[in-house]
Amino acid sequence: MKTFFTLSLLLLIQFSIKAQQARYSYLVVTLSTHTDYESAVTREYFQIDAEPHNKEADPIYSLKYYRRGNDTRRALAAFYFEKKDSAVTYNYFLNTTEALNYMSSLGWELLSVNTVIASDVDFAENPYIDNRKASQAYTKMGSKIVYYMRKTILPVSPPQN
After folding, report:
1. CB–CB of 118/128 below 8 Å?
2. Single pTM value for the model
């Protein structure tokens, strides 16, 4: 009898978990590298480039971009690594770890990391072909790292009467 009660309880728990199964939202992200030549110390920073049209990623889309030029407010900007209580977070991260930690703080988890390799054809002038100016084709190769993220979305339970 005790075994029957235990098995029934486990079966009931399993059905209740499946009924409240969480959904997932997925996001593909790349991190682009930029160089800040205008600050007192020249340094590189990273920006999160997330694919659009994911309503769960609104906090990532609302990150403010680093302004260049004669913007005096830029000197007072609260970047993520020095964020205290500022209402604005800039899309400015010191390294990849900091950017991924920011996404993790929003509930995103890293699923996979892949490298995407792309090639393109470009043309360059070559003055040494038949003593005349001519264009010569060459192949450009590049790669970037792609991060696949997932966020758990808990189901909204219906109101109880």
Report:
1. no
2. 0.67
